[in-house]
Amino acid sequence: MLKSLKDLFDSLLPPAPGADPASEDHALQLATAVMLVEVMRADPAFHDAERAKVLAALREKFGLAADEAARLAELAEATARQATDLFAFTDRINRHFDMARKLRMVELMWEVAYADGTLDAHERHVMWRIADLLHVPQAALQHARIRARDGGGSDG
Predict the structure, then answer these.
(1) What does the alpha-carbon distance between residue 37 and residue 72 come to, in Å, rounded to a whole number?
(2) Residue 75 burial (CB < 10 Å; 0-12/13-18/19+)?
(3) What are 120-136's pLDDT values in tens digits?
(4) Which domain holds residue 144?
(5) Contact 112, 54 (CB under 8 A)
(6) What pLDDT, in 10s, does the model give residues 30-41?
(7) Which CATH number do you get for residue 102?
(8) Do the Cβ atoms of 35 and 105 come closer than 8 Å?
(9) Domain named Co-chaperone DjlA N-terminal: which ranges (predicted)?
(10) Which of 36, 49, 84, 118 has the most other CB atoms within 10 Å of its CB?
(11) How many CA atoms lie within 13 A of 96 on its CB side?
């Protein structure tokens, strides 16, 4: 348990010069997974459809097998529960994702929010807050929302 917590905190630190690129990739995957999980956690009522959408998004975004996506989602949930803010995660994403990749991630986050068929006010607030930290313009945030909603969610 202590080793996994140390690994978690180490993954949030900036990589040392000459660090293993795989460890940076894992930290970026974790940061992205935490953003998806934050949207799921924003809904006061837990829905299996949201968890399934998080897993599907992780498989799509990173080409993970189902068991790898499940492990990453579990780690992201534990990380999100312990996090005091989102800056460490969004900063890592901002350093490695161009705007197109951030917009796709935001769209996946909207899909998580819409997975249960409704868009809760807490989910909407979390989306706005994360998009602001990712420097995603409001118009792009709304276009991503519409694409996610029209792709399988309900109106919100």
Answers:
(1) 10
(2) buried
(3) 899 999 999 999 999 99
(4) 23-150
(5) yes
(6) 999 999 999 999
(7) 1.10.3680.10
(8) yes
(9) 29-145
(10) 36
(11) 19
